[in-house]
């Protein structure tokens, strides 16, 4: 069927089948970007758009608990959307009814006459938590008897699977302008299937995620063989993504940091754009000045090592300490290393270094555990105890 559609396009529009498929690939890639990598890709003019911090998705089985009162048809419809999304994503799922514990996905129904304030102006609402982009918990609240029930639940269900955006130009259940929809659309299904491919991982930044998605979609469309090279495909869509990030990087304080940080990473590592370390440093500075934790870490690391920029230990320690206090685990590791060496104008302080490594290790980071244990091997029991005590006072705030 796909081949015949492409041939028909070629006959009617004078477009070659190859170009028709290329256009279809670009459209699918842009839809994925709008659904998974922007908060609201059509709101730029109003200042309402922002890039996400990266891919957010599940990487564990769903343990679902359903509580509250609803009609049998509402419950059945909700579980239908849940199971459909889980099947598309390839996630195992178990469902339990009634109060209990151990769930990571809670669905709670409220009677229309006693719905909480958060549901007074909305039929349903999703809250979610993630660690490094990996979803850890989702709570879906639903007001029974709400108007457009299926649209509302299907929409919020995809929020719970990692779509933060409302791309109003797409034929998507996520669009507020598509109120007549009552189920996932082909665009939603295709983008969700792409999001849950193994090559697209939680926390993956914008351009690397798009490069991985381009390859996934091209293979699915049989434009390249499995494991083939997609670098020549959908370049207009990739160019648009870079241009949008550049535009966002010059935007408001709410929008600019994530966009600038991601451009910095792209230019440093050569993600689609050519490697340009000076440009990477420039964008990291923009983001770091606006308190972006990862940009502070990457700029601080570059300054501490003198990588394509003049070495500046004092600035490096300042940036890494700010990032570590925002909860950036890798910044904690880097900061501990500089403190242990007495760099950046600080006296050698193995106790402080051990404290930061203890905090980082508490997050189950293998490198941090190894570094902490190695340092512990040369400390006295008194120093170890002092470091543990100091670690309890280092309470990082969530990274931006």
What does this structure look like?
With 400 residues, the protein is α/β, with parallel strands linked by helices. Among the domains are: 62-161, Chitobiase, domain 2 (2-Layer Sandwich), CATH 3.30.379; 256-391, Tetratricopeptide repeat domain (Serine Threonine Protein Phosphatase 5, Tetratricopeptide repeat, Alpha Horseshoe), CATH 1.25.40.10. It is 50% helix and 9% strand. The model is unreliable at 1-11 and 41-48 (pLDDT under 50).
Strand proportion, as a percent range, falls in: 5-15%
What is the terminal-to-terminal distance? 45 Å
- Rg over CA atoms: 24 Å
The helix/strand class is alpha/beta
Poorly predicted residue ranges: 1-11, 41-48
Order of helices and strands: HHEHEEEEHHHHHHHHHHHH
User: What's the CATH first level of the domain at 256-391?
Assistant: Mainly Alpha
CATH superfamily of the domain at 256-391: Tetratricopeptide repeat domain
Q: Mean pLDDT, as a whole number?
A: 87
Total strand segments: 5
Topology:
Layout: H1 2-13, H2 17-36, E1 62-67, H3 72-89, E2 93-97, E3 105-110, E4 124-131, E5 134-143, H4 149-159, H5 186-195, H6 206-220, H7 235-249, H8 256-269, H9 277-289, H10 293-305, H11 313-325, H12 329-341, H13 350-361, H14 366-376, H15 381-391
Parallel strand pairs: 1-2, 1-3, 3-5
Antiparallel strand pairs: 4-5
For the structure shown, list the relevant keywords.
globular; Chitobiase, domain 2; Serine Threonine Protein Phosphatase 5, Tetratricopeptide repeat; alpha/beta; five-stranded mixed beta sheet; disordered N terminus; 400 residues; 15 helices; 50% helix
């Amino acid at each position: 069927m796909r081949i015949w559609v492409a041939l028909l396009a070629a006959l009617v529009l004078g477009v070659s089948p190859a170009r028709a498929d290329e256009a279809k690939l670009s459209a699918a890639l842009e839809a994925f970007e709008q659904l998974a990598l922007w908060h609201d890709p059509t709101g730029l003019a109003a200042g309402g758009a922002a890039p996400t911090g990266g891919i957010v998705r599940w990487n564990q089985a769903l343990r679902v608990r359903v509580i509250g009162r609803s009609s049998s048809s509402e419950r059945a419809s909700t579980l239908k959307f849940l199971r459909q999304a889980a099947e598309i994503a390839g996630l195992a799922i178990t469902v339990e009814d009634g109060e209990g514990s151990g769930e990571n996905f809670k669905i709670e129904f409220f009677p229309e006459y006693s719905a909480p304030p958060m549901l007074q102006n909305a039929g349903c609402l999703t809250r979610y938590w993630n660690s490094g982009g990996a979803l850890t918990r989702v709570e879906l609240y639903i007001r029974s008897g709400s108007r457009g029930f299926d649209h509302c639940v299907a929409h919020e269900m995809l929020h719970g699977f990692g779509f933060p955006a409302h791309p109003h130009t797409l034929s998507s259940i996520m669009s507020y302008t598509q109120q007549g929809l009552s189920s996932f659309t082909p665009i939603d299904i295709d983008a969700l299937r792409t999001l849950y491919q193994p090559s697209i991982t939680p926390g993956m930044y914008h351009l690397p995620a798009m490069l991985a998605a381009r390859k996934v979609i091209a293979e699915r469309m049989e434009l390249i063989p499995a494991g083939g090279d997609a670098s020549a495909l959908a370049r207009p869509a990739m160019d648009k993504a870079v241009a949008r990030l550049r535009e966002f990087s010059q935007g408001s304080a709410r929008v600019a940091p994530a966009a600038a940080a991601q451009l910095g990473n792209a230019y440093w590592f050569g993600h689609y754009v050519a490697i340009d370390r000076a440009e990477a440093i420039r964008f990291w500075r923009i983001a770091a000045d606006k308190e972006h934790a990862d940009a502070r870490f990457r700029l601080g690391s570059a300054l501490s090592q003198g990588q394509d920029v003049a070495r500046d230990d004092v600035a490096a320690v300042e940036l890494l300490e700010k990032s570590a206090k925002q909860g950036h685990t890798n910044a904690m590791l880097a900061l501990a290393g500089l403190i242990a060496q007495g760099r950046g104008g600080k006296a050698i302080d193995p106790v402080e270094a051990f404290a930061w490594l203890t905090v980082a290790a508490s997050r189950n980071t293998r490198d941090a555990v190894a570094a902490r244990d190695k340092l512990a091997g040369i400390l006295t029991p008194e120093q170890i105890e002092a470091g543990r005590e100091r670690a309890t006072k280092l309470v990082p705030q969530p990274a931006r």
